[in-house]
Design a protein that fits this description.
heterodimer; A: mainly alpha; 22 helices; globular; B: 450 residues; alpha/beta; Rossmann fold; 2 domains; five-stranded parallel beta sheet
Amino acid sequence: MQFYSLEFILFLIILLLAYYLFAGKKGWLCLLAGSLLFYASFHVYYLFYVLGVAFSVWGGAWLLSKTEKKRKGRRRLILFSVLTLNFGVLCLFKYGGNLPGMSGLLMPLGLSFYMFQAAGYLVDIYYRKYEAEKNPVRFLLFVSWFPQLVQGPIGRYDRLAPQFDKTPAWDAERAKHAMVRVLYGAMKKYALANLLAGTVSHILDGDVRGLSSQVTVIGILFYAVQQYADFSGGIDMVIGIAELFGITMDENFRRPYFSVSVADFWRRWHITLGAWMRDYVFYPFALLKPMQRLGKTCKKKLGKHMGQAIPASIANLLVFFLVGIWHGSELHFVVWGLYNGVLIALSDLMRPLFDKLSAALHIRTESGGFHVFRVVRTFLLVSVGWYFDRIERVSDALVCLKNTFLHFDRDFSTVATLFAERFSDSQIVLPFVALFSLIILIVCSVLQEKGRDVYAGLQKVKCGYRWLLYIFMMVLIMTGFAYTNSGGGFMYAAF
Amino acid sequence: MRLFKRLKKPVLFLLAFVLVNALLTFFLTPYASPSSEMWDGYFRQQEIDAIYIGTSQCYESVNPEVTNPITGDHAYNMGTNAQSISDTKLALETAFADHEIKEVVFILDYDSIMKKTERRPKAEACFCYAMNRHLSLPARFKNAISFMFRPDYFCEAESVNYLIPWINNRSNFRPEYMLENAKAKLTGKAPEAGDLNNIRNEYGYKGFYGILDYDEDKDLPKEKEWSEEEVSDRAFTKLDDIISLCEKEQAKLLVVVAPETVSEVLSYGDSYFERHAFLREYLNARGVSLYDFNLANPSFYSSLPEDFKDWVHLNDAGAASFSTALATLQNKLRAGEDCEGLFFEGKEAYLSAADRIDSVRLKLYSNGKEGLTAEAFAMTGIPDRAEYEFYVREAGMTEEILVQGYSEKNSLIYQPKKSGTVTVRVNVRRAGSTCAFEHYRTEKTDYWKN
């Protein structure tokens, strides 16, 4: 069931009517029924997995809550058994394609997202962060909540679950806000990401070694926009749809291309995955006794900064190795993950050096100019990472990087050929649709970055102008569809 | 009153959106589309007793103005752009309900029965819009609902986009086009009326005068594979329905494959013949004959290079000769003649007959230190008789230089002197020929000394 389909629109209308008109205090049951129906619409057998994850984790958490705190061994056994079982299944789907009997077996849509969400809950119960859920059916809703099923965001139990207990109360203003958010997300996905997808694939799915440096750079820049517009657009739609039911989901993006460092980028890009990794991998790993011992040794021999930075860097490398491998078992994903981890580790380790350098060169690190420099620098570093993320062979990515930086050609004929091929006379409007969508995206992002509430600002504009903007965005979406054959799935649904 | 007040703004917004959508539909949907022309023409017909039906390969290849005098029929061409098998069935049901049809010639486009290519939502939506213009309101509603709720569209964007006609049926966003289109709609007069390039004749045929440029056209057929596993069960179910429908209506059904260029046929390699054998067996088992005019014996019919407007469509001259041959076949079959001998049985016979060089395919590989490899393939049934000549132009050069003279060797390894865009041209001719070339192809690639 695609978001942009009659099936989903009818499903949403019926579910909203049922939720607000008939469900009363049993609203959560209505949402659960809708969520399971939504998931089953892709494949009935998917239900088996979501039920398996939900009930195994709920059972594990229930056992943990019943096991005394001092019985550490038993508690650990429960935790690791349930995690091993669930992540084992996930790994089998993600990396077991070559095993006998596994070829052609498709991973259930969104499995890794809801599994991470459920695993986070289990670890929280292990650390007694909050009370375990007593009702397995209620817990099933937390895992299977339909807007987030396909591509997250990876929600937290203590923030999400209590919202399901609220008695449904329709709020027209909230619904309006939600619909504008859905419209904004749809514009990003269908009028920007989908329109760039063909060109990105045209450039980067072929023989990339033969590409000119300019065409390679265009491919990577387009990919940077495509990926952001696709994922964040999808998340906007998810958050908007959830908001229609009065449920507030965690934000997953905070204008990542305005980041001032790679570490900052990862605090703004796929925020819920980053936070999950921080809470359930980084801290537990960094707080392991051997790591603490290493920290103390480093502090003694290399100073206080290194005493903190070296264990943190090792933990970061582990986190980004896992982030890379979460995207796929192929080497290029691992290299991409480690590239980010190394950059963050180096920037952390060398911070005193950078501080000294800034002081020696009398750089005003608080100035606007330096801020812009840091944003551009971060964008370049992140874009280099996209080479490894998008180009499927590491050796090809290295050749492309070499061409980009060492063989930058001044002859722009290859770019002219590319644009002539991609945007022929009958498709002349296509770049304009993408461009207008990009302008709207940039304007909104800049305003948000300055701390302005774009939606609230829009409400102050005359109704006619506001509607004109909404209709213009809708026309952009529809024009996008005039050039594509279908809505296409979301990129991150594949992970 | 309170409800009205609450709903006022959303309703007004919806109306504003509908208005914008209607304006865009008016300006962007073309005055005439293949579907609207077909249905408009169909509903103007007084008498139809034979139908030609299929995709653009039907309405651009079969001219009933040519076939009717030969067969004595009152045939109409119901072909539309990228017509799906479902729409073929729908059109036939309509024709059977309105007329006494005695023969149906289904010009089969293999793409419409393959899993990967059978899905044609935009063409199907256009078909539906065009048909609806001639139906009652309830029938229109039923048609629209059946489209939007079709299982393969209901869960996809197409179900929503049906409500926005200009997404499915538009040709150009250029302002001058939009104005010309609006003018045509307001005056009811087609742009450049009477020109066959723009409008069908009264029998539903639409001819094109252009001739394919075998050397410069960019869409030279790529190598293709066909596999039995790729055929669509759903399309074959519809095909069975069509066969049953014709049986029920006591109409003779002929399945015909229209001529395509030799390059297109050869692009499938052996699988072209496997595909033909598979479909023939399938249809024969159901009492229906298949005639592939690409496999026609030259003594009966053969297409000329200048008969094509592109690699898979005939132009007006080609359509005239094909229509004549098709009508002749129809007459022979009606007379009970055995027509199997008019078509080749196997691959070898076809290949030896396809002895002309139709075009040449050129592939370039940039291999860093190893240089650049060019591979050329003459598109002919007898490739052994071809010889090749290679020219190269590196970045900064003003003209191509000969790097490998005519020989049977169809590949070239070339070491460019510097990085940049390299252009390679291959000439091809039959061995022993003294002409400069029969066909050529030019390709570019970017080369980097890594």
